[in-house]
What we know:
CATH superfamily of the largest domain: Cytochrome-c3 Hydrogenase, chain B
Structural class: alpha+beta
CATH class of the largest domain: Mainly Alpha
Radius of gyration: 23 Å
Amino acid sequence: MSSPTLTDKTKLKGFNLNFGPQHPSAHGVLRLIVKVQNEKILMADPHIGLLHRGTEKLIENKNYLQALPYFDRLDYVSMMIQEHAYVLSVENIKNLEVPIRARYIRVIFSEITRILNHLMSVTTHALDVGAVTPFLWAFEEREKLLEFYEKVSGARMHAAFFRPGGISEDIPLNLLNEIYIFCTQFIYRINEIEDILTNNRIWKQRLINVGVITKNDAENLGFSGVMLRASGVFFDLRKTQPYEIYDNINFNIPIGHYGDSFDRYLIRLNEMRQSVYIILECLNNIPVGLVNSYVQLNKKKLELNSMETLIHHFHYYSEGLSVSDNLVSYVSLESPKGEFSVFLSTNHTNKPNRCRIKAPGFLHLQGLDFMCKNMFISDLVTIIGTQDIVFGEIDR
Length: 396
């Protein structure tokens, strides 16, 4: 008996595929309902909220200092940059002037964090596609960077190092020399990762013309960061709306041409190079001086070796800052994943009345259906990887 054959009148039925939430290539607890016909994706519906912890409401029940560690746990690959957005928003409400040395240290550690993020993003993306070696190389470099985190804060990841008014305390002796040594050798490691991937035939076949986003589509979907710049849009908040000392630093913004996954990979590599140049310029120009203006307002009390010092210390860490006016603050900065924003409003207390967080990954995930349409199932893994998604910031 002959097997049935397909004719022109035969209708192929699509079916629904559950991708996640335990899929190793989902980059977090993503549940994706994918409607497929054969290997072609007709629709991809991301289900957001499996990791939801009510972070914004928790922050509203903490004082400004106690709320800070929650931001380390949002995008848990870009810890200090999340802190950075929050402390900038608090300083905007409190009208705090940050000492210039603290600004330099913040920029150094923000760019260290950007390198940490892109190393994770590029090499886990390569791991999804099938390349193992860059992942092992990158994690050796990440260990060195996490040691810098540990030396300034005592923690490898959740540092709580940035504080309203500056940083928690000055950096250890000789740390700047160690960061300089890292930067001089790290450029060669980026080149090694690029040598093994950029001209690799399999890597190019999996990324080129996959997940293409035009300039207009990227703007309409609300993309930011690498996802936007890969489509040819020059938009980086460090240049367009500079904060801290970025307007005094000479660096370039890599821009893509085609808006595909390969462009996004190349931009992340080049952004790591630019981060090294920013760090080196900061190392060459960092001044001496104070590192926290808020603490220095009470410098006389802190210098006394008495009960008054202990009382002030207890008062600062138990009650934190207080704000006398009804104010609102909305601050955006350029995180490794895109435009990360924090909205705070206050009402005469030491706690925020409202806290709202705008995460770039949330908008990128909403665009997943658009990027996946008529692509293959194997391309879905590539597209999720190139979006650089972390669900801590998306679900909150």
